[in-house]
Amino acid sequence: MSTRPEMTTDINKGKYDLDRSGVVTSDEIDRVKEIVEVEILGQRAHTQKKMAWISMISMVIFTLFLFSPMVSDSRVEALSDLIGLFFIAQAGVVGSYMGVTAWMSSSTRSNSGAYYSRPQHPQDGDH
User: Fold this and answer.
1) What's the helix, strand, coil split of the chain in %, to 5?
2) CA atoms lying within 13 Å on the CB side of residue 78
3) Which regions of the chain does DSSP assign to beta strands (E)?
4) Burial class of 87 by CB neighbour count within 10 A (0 to 12, 13 to 18, 19+)
5) Which three-class secondary structure state does DSSP give residue 107?
6) For residue range 84-96, what is the model confidence (pLDDT) as tens digits?
7) What distance in Å separates the CA atoms of residue 32 and residue 60, rounded to the nearest whole number?
8) Is the dihedral angle over the CA atoms 7, 8, 9, 14 positive or is it negative?
9) Contact (Cβ atoms closer than 8 angstroms) between residue 7 and residue 29
10) Structure confidence by residue, pLDDT tens digits, 10-29
11) What is the pTM of this model?
């Protein structure tokens, strides 16, 4: 049990009073904080995924545009350094997203013990 005081004001009480008791306890506030943190992490992951997809799509569209008859070879040659930087930057966004996602996934699994488990030792009488 927590020793922190309970909140009895009506400001957003319905939102934080999870058990509908009319009193918002510190435990309920802690639970709401956890829920909000998870929601923010989910929104951040969704935004990062959108950025990676937009980067990939923009590289494909830009490549198709460069090979179209609308762009002359002389323009492509003149802008080749900038075009290269564009592709490196976009690939950096995609690669960073994939790398961080894989790293976060593996660190979550290793912390939960999915990859590493303790070796089982036989009992003294089980030889």
Assistant:
1) 65, 0, 30
2) 5
3) none
4) middle
5) helix
6) 999 999 999 999 9
7) 42
8) positive
9) yes
10) 555 567 777 777 777 788 88
11) 0.60
